[in-house]
Every structure is written in structure tokens, then in C-alpha cells.
Amino acid sequence: MENGKVDRKDELETILDGFARQANGLIPAFHAIQERFGYIPKEWLPEVARAFNLSQADVYGVLTFYHDFRLQPVGRHVVSVCRAEACQANGSAALIDRLRRKLGVDFGETTANNEVTLLPTYCFGNCACGPSMAIDGKLYGRVNAERAERLLRGMGVLE
Amino acid sequence: MKVYVPRDFSACALGADEVARAIGREAERRGISLELVRNGSRGLYWLEPLVEVERNGKRIAYGPVGEEEVAGLFDGGFLEGKEHPARQGDPEEIPYLRRQKRLVFRRVGKNDPLSLDQYRRDGGFAGLTRALTLSPQQIVEEVTKSGLRGRGGAGFPTGIKWKTTLQADADQKYIVCNADEGDSGTFSDRMVIEGDPFLLIEGMAIAGLAVGATEGYVYLRSEYPLARKIFEEALERARAGGYLGKDILGSGKAFSLNLYIGAGAYVCGEETSLLESLEGKRGMIRPRPPLPAIHGLWQKPTVVNNVITLASVPSILADGAEAYARLGVGRSKGTLPVQLSGNLKRPGLVEVPFGITLEELLFEYGGGTASGRPLKAIQIGGPLGPYLPPSLFSVTLDYEELAKVRGIVGHGGIVAFDDTVNLGEMARYAMEFCAGESCGKCTPCRIGSTRGVEVMDRILSGKRDAGTLQLLVDLCDVMIHASLCGLGGMTPFPVLSGLRFFPEDFGYTKADVGPLVEKL
Ligand SMILES: Cc1cc2nc3c(=O)[nH]c(=O)nc-3n(C[C@H](O)[C@H](O)[C@H](O)COP(=O)(O)O)c2cc1C
Ligand code: SF4
Ligand code: FES
Question: If exposure means fewest CB atoms within 10 Å of the residue's CB, which of A74, A91, B90, B511 is most exposed?
Fold first, then answer.
């Protein structure tokens, strides 16, 4: 455990070293941290602030401005569904209802067994082939409620 | 023999990668040697995944093709171009494509977008080559004469913007490409970056030569991971090929280009918010003046242009401003890559000269609703654009003509809704979206949008006395006239157009709303 923690700190330092030299490196650094760890642990912000020579308030302000960045870990899988207009025009409401019901969570929440986090997206640029939904970054088009349920079953996250 | 399977975000969302793998496997199993090419998408999205077979230089398309159909296609002789229910014939002869006038998209979907050789063979870099023989003033003059206007939303004349930056005196200037493409119902930027990335690189290099900028950034939204991958690769190849760097094509002129990934904020599509974000900060809107063209990235003169604007430039330079300006109508010159989506039979990318009617786009190209129900309304120009009823479908695609009916061209997205939609609910959604995306700098937008959601909730739950309606209209009035940027300033458009054309969806009659909304 102790070792694991030390490694994470090392990795954080490596990431920060890479980006702190860039005048606009903070957002790329947050992306890199989140890509590596799944979220951005709040207790790391002082170190991030120091690396960029910014105040903690500045760093926190940037982080919370952007929808992509998370201060909480996510479940083992992330399901993102498009909530925007073109997908709505193709019936995404039914798909969203079904996902909420089957997973028992609302947007931004993680299932009790920590398997799935449900997130909203405002357009994947897949508007001609909606409704759109992504599982762990893989995009699916023309997804109706039944297909979404089949995909989740295929992942083994629904009984 | 070549087989083409698109590597495009949407085609892949419909299984194109799996289809490509299945074709590779099946060919190997049958001992057939073929070259598998991953092209971009032609934008005929109802046919994706659209597989093309090339024999003796002639192509035959099949689509939509599912992974499970691949073995059957081999059995049926698709490699010889034989009959099949999915056979579409020569892709270029499909009326949807044949009737378009593709300038920006002339290469997209045809070949491997990452082949520099192919790009050059297909006329690529002709614009840059010519630009290298011209003075900055001459390049700006050419773009001005073409009549090109910004395709990101505001429709500002590109030549005038470039001239401002050219005339600004500074030790460093920048070209920034706005690839944030936040509008729902739009995907043309994505298609260019995935399907013809060298075109954007060429356009940006020309912009750099025109205004004296030696450095550029592409600000790409994080929702486009495939575009990111393809563009990173394209940048590598363009640098290696001498099209970017300290000495482009041995001219002694420099232009370097970097990719920067956004982080999921709609407002960062607005150019000053984008610049803040590109500097690594919160994407707070900057008041203007100063204009970004004079004080932009790190306070240096900066041209911010949309992907399609920049991608229109190479053909203007290669074929001349006159050829471009001959297309289109009035003050809307050239072509617009229209993106058809929502409830349509044939959604996709339609690049046509300005002047076409909405009717033609929706029915002759789009084929009417996918559901077969009546088409009730379209939303044009993005999530902050108005809803228009069928009685206005005779209006032509033209900045000024659309403005006359309070419509906007925006980034060229048109989303169609059938008669199951409730535009009151959609208008509420627009307010909620604004509340979620507001940068918080000004009160009309930050507070107004939250109040807007509350008032819409009251109306939609049946509490719709005249006072509530008055309140909503007043709120819209304040947001339109007192917001610092277009996010707050345009959010009322869906609401007011919904009230104007579909008052029953809000529980009102035309008589209730008429006098109130007509003023705005
Ligand atoms: C809220 C808001 C969002 C915008 N989003 C985008 C966008 O995603 N892409 C874009 O090119 N322009 C967007 N714009 C327009 C830009 O502010 C700017 O006008 C454009 O990048 C200029 O380039 P152009 O002249 O080539 O159109 C947006 C504007 C507003 C007010
Ligand atoms: S209108 Fe909204 S997004 Fe624009 S500056 Fe004001 S608060 Fe920010
Ligand atoms: S609206 Fe859903 S992908 Fe664009």
C-alpha cells in the first residue's frame, strides 16, 4: 500500500515535470493525470499549484471550470450518453430513461457495486447516426434502449 | 484490388473497424490478396459503413454493411462488383453526392487521408505553393475578393479579419483554428480533420503567410478522440514532408503548428473564451475591444478561424478568388458544408453553394423524416439557433435571407424534428444548457438562464398566466441585449421562436404570445 502511494506521487511528478514548462500546460496536465489515474485527487492540487507556480485557488478554479475533469474516482466502466438535440430528435430520451432505470443511477453517479458511472455528453459529432452512446471511450451509433441494454449485458454489468 | 472501409468516428460507431477486420480475415481465409484502405467518410451517413471496392480504377459501393454480412458479400462476389441488396453502384453517381458542389470536401472520403502523396496527387498544396509566390497583402486581397465569411457562426468576412492582423505590428502573431465544434447537429469540422487533415494544415500555413504569423494552434474538443489521433499523425507527416517548420518548402518562411485539446466546455468555442483556455486558464469570456485580431493569444495579434473557414482557403488560392465568388448568392459567397441530422431518412454532409432552399435540403437531400411522421420543425444554426416551421422552408440558405426570418446560418447544422417533439420542452432544455455552460462573467446569462429554467418549468407545469409569459419574454429581452457574449445573447432564440411558431407546445395560443414576442 505504502509503496503504491509513493509510486503514484512519482508518476504525478513525472507528469508535472513534462507540462510545467509549457506556459499553457495546466489543462494538458490535468488531462494526463486523469487519463492515468481516472480522476484528479484533490490532495494533489497543492503539488500541481507549486509545479505551475500558481495559487491553489487558481488551479482549483481551472479544474472546476471544465466538465471533463473529475475530483472523484469513477466506476470500472464509464457510460456516456449524448443529451443534445439531434440525438433527442431520434429518441434518445427513451434510451436515457432505460439506462437510468437499469443502472439505478442518475447522470454523474456511480452504481453501488462501483461498476458503472453514467455521464452526460453534449454531442459526440455523431449526430447523423444518433442516438449516441460511448462505453469506456468506444462510441456506438443508432443506439436505442434495447441495444443499450444488450451492450451493458454484454459487458456483464447487468444481470 | 483495393477495398475501402471508412475510418471516421461515425462510421466506426456503426462498426466500420469490425467490418474492416472481418474483410481482412475473410480475404485471408479465401486466399485473396487485397489492399485494405481506410478512407474518410463521404458523409452519406445513412449508408455507413459504406464499403467500396475498386477494380481497374472503378469503384462500386456497398452499404450499409454490417460485420455479419461480410462473408455473404464475398460469397455474392462483391469483389467483382456483383449484385447485392446493399449495392449502391458507383459512389460518385449516388444522386446525393453527384448533385453537391464539393470544394472543401472534394477529397474527403475518397482515399487514405494520411497519405501525403495522395494529397499532392489530388491537387493538395497547390494553394500553398501559389501563396508562397505572393506577398502577404496579395494573399489577404485574394481571400477578401473571394467573399469568404467565417463558418464558425458569426459569418464575419475573413479577409477583413486577416487584414487587421496583418496590419498589427508585433514580434509574434498567431493563427488559431477553432475546432471546438460544440454545436449539436454539426460534424463538418470533425470530418475534415479525420478525412482530409492536410487540407486544414495547408489552410493554416497560408493564413500564417498572409498575416505574418509563424505559429499556430488547433484547439480541438476532447469529444473527438479519433480526430485527435489522425491529426497528430498528419502533423508528424507534414513536418517530415517540409510543409511545416522553420523553412516551409524551402521558401525560408516558417510556420509551426500545435494541437491543443479542450476539456468539455461549450463556451470555449467562443473565440475569446477559447483563447483563455488555450492559455491554460478558465475559459472566461474577454470583453471586447480589444479584438483578438490585435490582442489575442498572450495578447499578441491572432487570427481565430473555424476549421471550415481555413479549409476553404486552399482552393481559393489554387483556383482564384473569382471562381469561389462565382458560387453562391448575394453576400453569401461560395459553398457551405451543410450538416443534416436529427429525424431524417438521409442525414449527412451536403456541401452546396449558398442559395439552395431549406426545402430542397430537407426533402431532396434529407428525404424527409426517418420516422415517416410529419416534419414539424427544424433547428438551424446550433443549439442556440431558432426553431423554424415548415411554412419557412422556402427560405434560401443565405446569411441575409435567413436573418430576415430571424434564422441563422451558424456552423451550418440543421436538426430536424418530427411531430412528436414538444418545442416547449426543447426550449426549456436550451435554457438549462445555457445555465450549465455559462462562464459566469455576466449576470443576464448566469442568473438569467437559471431563472429561465424556473419560469419554463412553471409554464410547462400549467401555471401559465399572462404574468409568467411576460416574465419569460422580459428575461429573454434582457439576455439578448445585456449579455456579454453569444451564449447568453442567443439562448433566447430557441425560446422565442418556439413561442412564436409553436405556442401550443407551451400551452398558449397565438393570440397570447403574438404581441409580446413580435417585438423581440
Ligand atoms: C457560445 C459560442 C460558442 C461558439 N462555438 C464555436 C465553435 O464551436 N466553433 C467555432 O468555430 N466557432 C464558435 N463560435 C464562434 C467564435 O466565437 C468565432 O466567431 C469563430 O471562431 C470565428 O471564426 P470564423 O470567422 O472562421 O467563423 C462560438 C461563439 C459563441 C458565442
Ligand atoms: S453571456 Fe454567459 S457565457 Fe457569455 S460572458 Fe456572459 S456569462 Fe459568460
Ligand atoms: S447530438 Fe448526439 S452526437 Fe451530436
Answer: B511
Q: Choose, out of A52, A80, A85, the residue to mutate when testing the contact with B (most B CBs < 10 Å).
A: A85
Same domain, B147 and B249: yes
Provide the residue range defining the domain that includes B233.
116-325
What is the grid cell recorded at A102? Answer: 437499469
Task: State the average pLDDT for chain B.
Answer: 97
Which positions in chain B touch A132 (Cβ < 8 Å)?
A: 13
pLDDT value, residue A1:
39
Tell me, yes or no, if A120 comes closer than 8 A to chain B by beta carbon.
Answer: no
> Regarding the domain delimited by A77-154, which CATH topology (the fold level of the hierarchy) does it fall under?
Glutaredoxin (3.40.30)
Listed in order, the ranges of chain A carrying CATH 3.40.30.10 are 77-154
The sheet carrying B215-220 orders its strands as: B256-261, B215-220, B174-179, B302-306
Sequence letter at residue A52: F
The residue type found at B427 is A
Give residue A6's pLDDT: 60
Pocket test for ligand 3, best of A123, A133, A142, A144 (most atoms within 8 A of CB): A123
Q: Which cell numbers in the block locate residue B511?
A: 393570440
**Using one digit for the tens of pLDDT, what is the confidence trace for B260-280?**
999 999 999 999 999 999 999
**Domain holding B332: CATH number?**
3.10.20.600
Q: Looking at the structure, do residues B413 and B462 belong to the same domain, yes or no?
A: no
Place of cell 412553471: B458
Element spanning B493, H or E: helix B492-501
Distance CA A19, CA A10 (A): 15
Same-domain status, B210 and B337: no
Q: Which of A129, A132, A139 best tests ligand 3's pocket when mutated (most atoms within 8 Å of CB)?
A: A132
Residue A2: the pLDDT is: 45
- In this structure, are B36 and B167 located in the same domain? no
